[in-house]
User: What shape does this take?
Amino acid sequence: MRRALRGESSADRRDVRESGERAFLVGLDYRTRTGKGKRSLTAGAQSARDAATSVAVGSKPPSMPEFSADESLDELRTLATSAGATVVGEILQRRDRPDPATLIGGGKLEEISGAAASADADLILFDHDLSPSQQRNIERILHKRVIDRTQLILDIFARHAKTREGQLQVELAQLEYMLPRLAGRGVEMSQLGGGIGTRGPGETQLETDRRRIYRRIRHVKEQIENVRRIRAQQRQRRESVPVATVALVGYTNAGKSTLFNALTEAEVLASSKMFATLDPTIRGVELPSRRKVLLSDTVGFIRNLPHTLVTAFRATLEEVQRAALILHVSDAGSPLTAEQDAQVELVLKELEAEKKPRLHVMNKIDLLEPKQREALRDDAQTVHVSAVRGVGIAAVLERIDQVLEEDPVSRVRLSVPQKEGKVLAMLAARSRIYSREYRDGVVEMEAEAPESVVRRVREFVVKSSS
Assistant: This one.
């Protein structure tokens, strides 16, 4: 199956070449022989299912929604665009099993070679991870740069990492990806130099490159460990004050950063491109009960997220592990919501955070048809919002207030002397006051306040209310 873009003039091609590289996409669909009517697995779906099963050892394997091959290719197209490429054509191959040498077989490679040449493509993007030998074999036949799905995601991460921490984590993932792919990248990297004065004992260029990369990996890991230490110290200071952390997680481009901005009135970059947010951002939020919480925006998850990235970004994702509550943000308007949610579950399990208290936020309801919106109903675990329109934001804050167990809220009666101005000001700022009476220089009030506030005014508590 081939879908090439047509109707481009030479002027169009010059404009495209100035703005970015021209990419030709290759998708794969491995058919399963499990019976008529069954949906075939994409190249990565089986590995994702195996990962889910291995996590839940001793339990019944979960019934996990699967991306179809076309849906997976659509996602690759979005990834390519986010990386700055222009998609000029694509091919989807269906086969029973992968070819060990070239993944898709020599005949299909010849077809791709002709199609990519006619589309004037600069590089070939595979919707699958390639082994080092497969990548070399394919490049030898196509005579073009070949990039697999992991390398494409790494490139997007490198483009979007702004802080030193984010850049270090991306570099570590890139180095670990590059290491097994050094062999065979040119004769000069795999043999001793030739000529007088170069013969004899010594190491090959390949060994030299490996040694340099190992040294750089050690150095980057040390720097990331320093970052983790600093982050742990900051977290300890935060945890010394009873302020809970709420972490936003979700599939990439689900609208987490837009929701984060709506809840905190911050100005974090919100973009339709995948992985627009890499560097964690934490902002304070006041709940309706006047409790303070910290909201953390995190990197988006994706199907078959490269393990090197999960490992490299562990310092960042520790915010998810430490959170008192997880806000799982989903794109309500996407036809792949169930599949995307299943992938988020896989990453949460890998982070050992799947049992944390959770609130499911279905975002982008403004993209639904009116009848669909009218049929939506919030429940104890789910809230429907449109972050970009500001719809449902108050409901999210109210629900966080109800679910959050840290620094619980209680209703108390207080008798505070009027001369205690600081205490009265703190109560006005940090609690909900339901009644207030002034008698003989004393303010008698009934208030609802977090436990941290009640502890500070315990000497003025008359009795607790229900």
User: Anything to note?
Assistant: Confidence is low (pLDDT under 50) at residues 2-19, 33-62, 185-202. Residues 205-240 form the longest helix (36 residues). The longest strand covers residues 86-95. The radius of gyration is 28 Å.
